[in-house]
Structures are given as C-alpha cells and as structure tokens.
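Appendix B, example 12.
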Amino acid sequence: MALCLPLVMRAQTANAEEAAIPIVISDDTGTTLTFKQPVRRIIALYGAFNEIFLALGAGDLLVARTAADGNLPELAALPAIGTHMRPNAELVLAQRPDVVVQLEGRSEAQTQTENLRSLGLNVLTFELNSFERLFEVTQLLGQLVGRELAATALVNGWKGRLQALRSSSAGKPRARIFYEVRYPNLLAAGRGSISSEILALAGGENVVTDSKKLVRFSEEALIAADPDVYLIQQGPMNPAPTPLDERDHYRGLRAVREGRVLVVDEERFARPGPRALDAAEELAGWLRR
C-alpha cells in the first residue's frame, strides 16, 4: 500500500530535499566553492558587495565590515577587520565567516585573498565594473544566501529603471561630460568605469575615450576637450577638491562659464553597487534642468 503523507509533511519533505541540494558558486578567478546550505556568516571586503547583501535583505548575515564601510548605518556597529586592500587576517578568522567576498582587481588585494585562502577560509572574488556585472553578481550572491527569488526581483527592477533612463534620453543631444576622479595630478574616469556608464545612461557622453577605468589626463587635453559639463567626485580619492574657478586654466572651460559643474558623491557615482542606479537617475534629472 502506498503511503500517503499529509500535505504539511510532504511540504516539509520537499523543503528538506531542496535544502540538501548543494550550492555551487564559481568566481571570476576560476575558483569554485560548494556549500551544503545557504551561508549564514559573511564578510565582504568591498562596499558594493555589502550594499548588494543589504538590498537582498541579507544584512543580518554580515558579521564584520571594512574600515571604509562604517558610514553605512546598517554596518556601523559591526567590528572592523581592516581595509579592502589589507584585511587583518586574525580579525577575519575571529569572526568565523562561512565565506569572504572580495573584489577582483589590484594585485595587492589578490595577495591578501590568497593569504586568507591559505588559512582555510572560503573566498569568492568577483569583478564588478558595470551594471551588467552588478546584475550577474547579485544573482550569484542571492544564490549564495538562499535568496534567488529576491535577487531576480531586484535585478528585474534595476533593469526596468535602466531601460527607462535609456528611453528618456533616446534621440536627444548628449552633453559632453568630464568626470574628475582626483585633483591635483588630474585623474579622470575612463570608459571602462561604472562612472562612465552612469554618464551614458543619464544622457551624457564621456569626453575621455580611453577604455581604461582610470586615466591620467593633462590640463592641456582637458582644455582641448572643453566639456559641456564637469563632474567633480568627492570622497576618499578626492576628499577636498578645489573649486574650478580657483584653479588656473580651468576658469575658461565651457562648463565653468555656463555654470554646468556638479560635485558628486564618490560612493554612489564610482562604486558599482545598487546606489549607482540612484546616481544615474539623479544625474539625468540634473542634466535636464
């Protein structure tokens, strides 16, 4: 005789079977990790990953933060374990994370990643330099914490917002924009940066054509480009930028003469996280004024 389980018991059995399915995540360095169940203790060594976890409703799984993320109210009370580039391995180990999430990029950070792995920690490393990568990584992190449906809904919402931005600027003249990353020793956002993608989505065009993320730019080249709009990033890389009208050679720029200069928040305009969408929408509104 076939055994007929009550509906509740069948649901519990199904949930148990689903929970038993391992979670397999491959990162951008070729590392593949397998988890028996969704992770419950996470340390993210780059702020955008913390913002993604918060957007997924998984902030309670974060057990520590870097020194740079203390300004996020949701993370302020968490213990600090060093910086993105130089996490303190002892402090990381003390938090017993199921996984550490790191940003792929500079060699110094990767050296620290290998050190953490040598201590037996699970480390996943992802590149995050565009909205497309933001969407992909969000789906992976949603899988990691057992919130796949939430991740899909989040990404679909983001894609809708970006499509609305593209539609609003379609067929319209594009403002030529220069994005200052640092001054002095002028550093600009190249077309390989999330900042440049924000400019394009907002209805602008980056006057810097180099495909790199960050580009050293001379004042002579800037004067020759003569942008319509000048954005000044303010944050850790450019903490106290000098106003343009106080800089030699800058006062004659079209953007300065026409009052089209905007100081923007580095964390929103240069970090490829959820708030980058807010930045694109804010800039689009400002450009339409």
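The CA atoms of residues 195 and 270 lie 5 Å apart. The chain is about 40% helix and 20% strand.
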